[in-house]
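Tip: read the tokens left to right.
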């Protein structure tokens, strides 16, 4: 279902890891390390079994769009039936990974990760206490979905967001790839189980989100 590409090791430029000396490349946020640290670019794809009926996935499962009405899909306990959400593969249980999402002309969205076993039926609150670590763009404002929510101040609107997961450290960070700036970091300490990429659109305010292909090693 998924694969990963090793992109750096010892002394090379790496996608951002916390507590290190930051440098930036034109294509992705990078770091230079003196230690032997391995980072993987996750080849994230969307999981149709989890997609809300109003969401339409592309054939390659990399783009999600809000439809005008809900589709007639089989009932599935994995599927979100209240919020228009969809999860991604891979399911992560260890390691450091990053992926990028193209958000240009996307309208409103939530992006981040969630526990593999989050509630998908009924009333859902996107917050860390319920197993979600995400940021939001809605009505021209950016928010970290903490408790309470915290508004983020960005110098420039991103067209692409990089999501960087450090599983063992319980940390997930978000980066604006337009001006190569840090947006927000959740320091959870422990995720208490496997996590997955998380995507949400807003039925009357969203267009589409596109997952960028992982760079080749």
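Filled-in amino acids:
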């Amino acid at each position: 279902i998924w694969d990963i590409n090793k992109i750096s090791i010892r002394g090379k430029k790496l996608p951002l890891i916390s507590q290190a000396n930051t440098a930036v490349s034109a294509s992705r946020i990078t770091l230079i390390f003196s230690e032997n640290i391995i980072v993987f670019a996750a080849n994230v794809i969307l999981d149709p079994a989890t997609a809300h009926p109003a969401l339409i996935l592309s054939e390659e499962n990399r783009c999600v769009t809000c439809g005008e009405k809900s589709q007639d899909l089989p009932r599935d306990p994995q599927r979100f039936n209240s919020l228009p959400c969809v999860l991604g593969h891979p399911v992560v249980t260890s390691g450091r990974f990053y992926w990028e999402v193209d958000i240009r002309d996307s309208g409103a969205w939530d992006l981040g990760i969630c526990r593999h076993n989050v509630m998908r039926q009924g009333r859902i609150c996107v917050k860390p206490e319920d197993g979600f670590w995400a940021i939001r763009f809605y009505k021209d404002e950016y928010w970290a979905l903490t408790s309470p929510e915290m508004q983020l101040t960005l110098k420039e609107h991103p067209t692409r967001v990089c999501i960087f997961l450090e599983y063992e450290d319980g940390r997930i960070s978000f980066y604006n790839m337009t001006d190569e700036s840090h947006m927000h970091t959740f320091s959870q300490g422990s995720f208490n189980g496997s996590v997955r990429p998380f995507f949400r659109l807003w039925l009357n305010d969203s267009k589409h989100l596109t997952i960028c292909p992982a760079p080749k090693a």
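The chain has one domain: 41-212. Residues 41-212 form a domain with the Jelly Rolls fold (CATH 2.60.120.920).
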